[in-house]
């Protein structure tokens, strides 16, 4: 995912602040050394103490500002990543399929995992690269030998960091995959809850979920174990090098070193080096602490990259009249299928006329409707609207009223669900659409009428009522093209006869394509095409 640019200025600020923090650390060590020296000599003690306090305050302020800048950068990167992932999903390639569980985990947990990487790891990595060597160079001004000890001790520290990082990478990836598996499983089982209950599979599903949850817990513990071990090793080397410097400074001050050295430290220089030593390791310890954030982000990024990407579609210019639609030698071949769903089809729907598609199940009727909705891939040929190809025009979906075979039902009232197709419809328009498709009888049985609450499964609606709801949406939406997919399936002959009038009325003044098995519906058409 190309997230370059998002949060870049906040990140630059965070990096600048961590460098300034290094400068303040040197200032703190210097003022501490001079304060101690002034305490011994009695000269300028108050001035040095005031400067020491100032250095401490400056460090606190800089740490706070760096945290804020890191958090701001992370918030911007996460917002950009989420927007990019959602745009890619909405504009995904027609006919491609993505597991909704993988998408949910990638967009929610995956994007969230970028937080620590941007807010902590990136500034910490910059500080670890820039500060330790600069501070060792500063320490060398006071004591070249202490600086050499600090430099030498950096080597095992860096090796320990690299080893810990490699071990953590594999564990983090495994943990993220376990999380993805558990989220996917949970989402699927919640969706299929009525089926689970109907087949009395609750205990088996509970066991499966418990196993997945335990797997995630075990993998999380392994990640934590690697993190604790690596932190322990790093703290050991940091403490060891500070101790070595302390021993060297102490023995040098007391002139008790068992070997000759070319320098003699005084109290001021010894204190300066001693106060500076922990500061040299601090950025690397912070980096090690933030290393898990990087691993988590890497594991999550793999899932984000796996999401399909497609450039957002442009919308076709608004059609003021029902258009002529022509399918010219159209072939639809789904990427996963062995054979094409539709091959070399020629078909023209005159402006404002109705064409019915008849044909056995699987002959490609729905696929042809889906082609106009950008939901099926155009493998060969062209779809022309008023003589222009869809590729030239852009997406027509905003100008199509559509009643599909499996209407999407959102949690909300029946009225809200009808209005999904046309958000600005008035209550009177919604009521009229519901009545025209014969929902009135169904509504009279429910005390709340159009305000009857539906869950996302549409529980409580019969198959026929779902069809009617779908048709009501298509009737409500003012669009010059109408696509109906099996509008009378699941209805008995009497209900079908009732709906025919509503369909004929809905098609009036629109270019209409109806996929159907019903001869009565086909009889409404100006032209009937039978697919092989
Ligand atoms: N997303 C898809 N990926 C792969 N194959 C698909 C996809 N959608 C449809 N197909 C296949 O394309 C062929 C045509 O399917 P389509 O749904 O268009 O037929 P249909 O005539 O509308 O069938 P029905 O009358 O049962 O609704 C079928 O073999 C189907 O399995």
UniProtKB/TrEMBL annotation:
Family matches, as PROSITE patterns: ABC_TM1F, ABC_TRANSPORTER_1, ABC_TRANSPORTER_2
Residue ranges annotated for the ABC transporter domain, each copy included: 325-532
Entries under InterPro entries matching the protein: AAA+_ATPase, ABC1_TM_dom, ABC1_TM_sf, ABC_transporter-like_ATP-bd, ABC_transporter-like_CS, ABC_transptr_CydD, P-loop_NTPase, Type_1_exporter
Topology relative to the membrane: Multi-pass membrane protein
TM annotation in the entry: 17-36, 48-67, 124-142, 148-170, 226-247
GO CC, any one term: plasma membrane
Main localisation: membrane
Subcellular location: Cell membrane
GO BP annotations listed: cysteine transport
Keyword list, A-Z: ATP-binding, Membrane, Nucleotide-binding, Transmembrane, Transmembrane helix
Any one GO molecular-function label of the UniProt entry: ABC-type transporter activity
Top-level taxon of the source organism: Bacteria
Domain ABC transmembrane type-1: 17-296
Alphabetical list of NCBIfam families matching this protein: CydD
Protein name, entry field: ABC transporter ATP-binding protein
Species of provenance: Caulobacter henricii
């Amino acid at each position: 995912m190309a997230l370059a640019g998002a949060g870049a200025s906040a990140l630059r600020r965070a990096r600048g602040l961590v460098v300034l923090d290094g400068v303040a650390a040197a200032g703190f060590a210097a003022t501490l050394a001079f304060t101690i020296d002034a305490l011994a000599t009695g000269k300028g003690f108050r001035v040095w103490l005031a400067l020491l306090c100032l250095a401490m305050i400056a460090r606190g302020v800089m740490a706070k500002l760096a945290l804020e800048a890191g958090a701001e950068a992370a918030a911007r990167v996460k917002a950009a990543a989420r927007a990019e992932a959602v745009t890619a999903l909405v504009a995904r390639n027609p006919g491609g399929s993505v597991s909704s569980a993988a998408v949910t985990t990638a967009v929610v947990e995956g994007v969230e995992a970028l937080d620590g990487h941007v807010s902590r790891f990136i500034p910490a990595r910059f500080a670890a690269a820039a500060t330790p060597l600069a501070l060792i160079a500063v320490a060398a001004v006071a004591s070249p030998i202490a600086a050499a000890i600090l430099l030498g001790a950096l080597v095992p520290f860096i090796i320990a960091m690299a080893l810990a990082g490699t071990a953590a990478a594999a564990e983090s990836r495994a943990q993220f995959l376990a999380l993805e598996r558990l989220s996917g499983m949970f989402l699927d089982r919640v969706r299929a809850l009525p089926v689970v209950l109907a087949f009395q599979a609750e205990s088996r599903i509970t066991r499966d979920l418990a196993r997945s949850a335990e797997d995630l817990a075990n993998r999380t513990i392994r990640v934590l174990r690697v993190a604790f071990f690596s932190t322990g090793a790093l703290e050991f080397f940091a403490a060891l090098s500070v101790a070595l410097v302390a021993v060297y400074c102490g023995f040098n001050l007391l002139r008790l070193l068992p070997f000759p050295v070319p320098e003699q430290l005084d109290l001021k220089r010894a204190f300066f080096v001693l106060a500076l030593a922990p500061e040299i390791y601090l950025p690397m310890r912070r980096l090690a602490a933030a290393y898990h954030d990087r691993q988590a982000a890497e594991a999550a990024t793999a899932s984000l990259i796996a999401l399909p990407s497609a450039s957002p579609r442009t919308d076709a210019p608004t059609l003021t009249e029902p258009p002529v639609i022509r399918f010219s030698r159209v072939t639809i071949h789904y990427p996963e299928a062995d054979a094409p769903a539709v091959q070399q089809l020629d078909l023209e729907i005159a402006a404002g006329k109705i064409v019915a598609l008849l044909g056995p199940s699987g002959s490609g009727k729905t696929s042809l409707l889906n082609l106009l909705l950008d939901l099926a891939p155009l493998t060969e040929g062209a779809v022309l609207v008023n003589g222009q190809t869809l590729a030239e025009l852009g997406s027509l979906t905003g100008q199509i009223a559509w009643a599909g075979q499996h209407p999407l039902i959102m949690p909300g009232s029946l009225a809200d669900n009808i209005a999904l197709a046309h958000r600005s419809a008035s209550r009177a328009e919604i009521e009229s659409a519901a009545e025209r498709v014969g929902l009135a009888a169904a509504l009279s049985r429910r005390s709340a009428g159009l305000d009857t609450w539906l869950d996302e499964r549409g529980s409580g609606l019969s198959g026929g009522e779902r069809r009617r709801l779908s048709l009501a949406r298509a009737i409500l939406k003012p669009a010059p093209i109408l696509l109906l997919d099996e509008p009378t399936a699941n209805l008995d002959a009497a209900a079908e006869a009732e709906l025919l009038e509503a369909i004929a009325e809905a098609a009036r003044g629109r270019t209409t394509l109806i996929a159907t098995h019903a001869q009565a519906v086909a009889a409404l058409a100006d032209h009937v095409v039978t697919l092989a």
